[in-house]
Amino acid sequence: MIWMTWRQHRKQALFTVIGLTVLAALMVPTGLAMRNTMASTGLDECVRLALDSEKCNTASRQFSNEYSSLAFVGILFVILPLLIGLFWGAPLVAREVEHGTHRLVWTQGVSRRQWALVKVGFVGGATVAAAVVYGLGLSWWMTPLSHAGLSSRFSVLLFDMQGLVPVGYTFFAVALGIFAGAIWPKVLPAMAFTLVGFVGIRVALTVLARPNYLPASTRTYPVFGLASAPERDKYDWILAVGVRNPDGTLVVPNGTVECNQVVEGPGAPCGSEFGIEAGAYNWQLYQPAGRFWLFQGIETGIFVALAAVLLVLAVRAIRRIA
């Protein structure tokens, strides 16, 4: 049964290896080039020591001008888990049932349960192996872009391409495809369901759930009497900003106001057009940068748990196929 499963999917395995090789051919040279540029300009030392000087700012701008376009190339990597789910997961059961080849196997002394477990185990193992390889590779490749300050590690693209989550996304996409093929045993409907379900779940978790995995922290500083905002970690994930009056009323959403002079009450020239009162403060709602790996673990766990449930349901559905 294992040998037969390998023969059925060896072309897909070959294409996957070729795809990973192509990605490596792109990522390794550019990743090394970015690291060499950071070293030659001194930007790596600026990042390591958290320095803020004119030299460091110049090095950051130089790096940005040279490599910022690569961040958009990374967008292509975001869809890789979906592609694996569409072309590995969805056809796994649906193609065999659609063509009727499953009946031949089931008449050769192979139970439905054994057939399902071997196929799911083979594809699941190959999926996890591929996801780990390109997940670690992407993390290595994206590190200079993240550390150079081109974007926060919590930004949608960087968060989704680094660390543990690519493994969870890929495992979930394949499990969703297998489940879809067991419920609607035709390839095209299974692929369509996988596409819609994967995108829907990803968007829902990214927009609604991810900002609330842990209670957000708040940062405040006065509107009056400060020249600038207090220092913060540039990798913090800022969820919301605004200006609030002493009673907590939000008077300036999505913005900040900083007045150098100290004032006594409303009607002062600085900020009076917004209805800002004495004692008003700038307010930020944020997730600290130090929670990055914890959020990675939480989101990966969610997708792995969803994948496990889908695989159990898929195996049960396969046992009921006529």
Number of domains: 2
Please state the overall shape, judged from the principal axes of the Cα atoms.
Answer: elongated
Q: Distance N terminus to C terminus? A: 20 Å
Whole-number average pLDDT?
81
Content of β-strand = 5-15%
Unreliable segments of 5+ consecutive residues = none
SSE pattern, N- to C-terminal: HHHHHHHHHHHEEEEH
Helix content: 55-70%
Number of strand elements: 4
What is the gyration radius calculated from CA atoms? Answer: 26 Å
Strand order of the largest sheet: 1-4-2-3
Continuous helix count: 12
**Major pleated sheet:** 4 strands, antiparallel
Structural class: alpha+beta
Explain briefly what this protein structure is.
By secondary structure, the protein is an alpha+beta fold. It has twelve helices and four strands, in the order H-H-H-H-H-H-H-H-H-H-H-E-E-E-E-H. The protein folds into two domains: 2-213 and 295-318, no CATH class; 217-289, no CATH class.
